[in-house]
Amino acid sequence: MDCPCGSGKQYADCCEPFISGAQKPPTAETLMRSRYTAYTVHAVDYIVGTCIKKKEQDIDVKLTREWSEKSRWLGLKIVSIEKGDESDTEGTIEFEARYEQNGLRDIHHEKASFKKIDGVWLYDEGVIVPETIVRSSPKVGRNEPCPCGSGKKYKHCCGKS
Q: What is the pTM of this model?
């Protein structure tokens, strides 16, 4: 089967060796991709085990397992990569993980930092990237004519609470 991480490789030749423990990810990006894949195959122990130990107690394993199992994973998009190569000791990856849960599609957009400790890449922490909402039409003031065409003020028409 194709690897869920989107590399274009087969799962057995891509993320499976990392999730099974046969190999260690050589870069922060490889770790990021394998962690995403771990969510899709419900390998929660791998997700917990690839965190820096001081952060491990901050993970709610039950909620992580529920999110993994109750979601249908739709794809991973790497937005940007800063450092994180084999010769680095730190790296940052901004990514979007698309998923569907209870019939609703969503995007988990995160900027994650990784550290290499004793030659092993680990997830350090992540910051959710907020979504900027852009209006498709101009804002209507309370005292302006209602855009529905009724001739009433907005506050007395469609803007009534």
A: 0.81
In the chain the first and final C-alpha atoms are separated, in Å, by 52
Pairwise CA distance, residues 19 & 157, whole Å: 58
Residue with structure tokens 């099974």?
20
The C-alpha atoms of residue 37 and residue 47 are separated, in whole angstroms, by 10
SS3 category, 34: helix
- The pLDDT tens digits of the residues spanning 94-129 come to 999 999 999 999 999 999 999 999 999 999 999 999
Closest C-alpha to 66, from 102, 33, 96: 102
SS3 content of the chain, % helix, strand, coil (to 5): 25, 30, 40
Q: Is the dihedral of CA 32, 36, 41, 43 positive or negative?
A: positive
CA angle 115, 119, 125 (to 5 degrees): 15
Nearest CA among 45, 56, 30, 33 for reference residue 116 = 30
64 or 147: which carries more pLDDT confidence?
A: 64
Residue 145 token pair: 């004519």
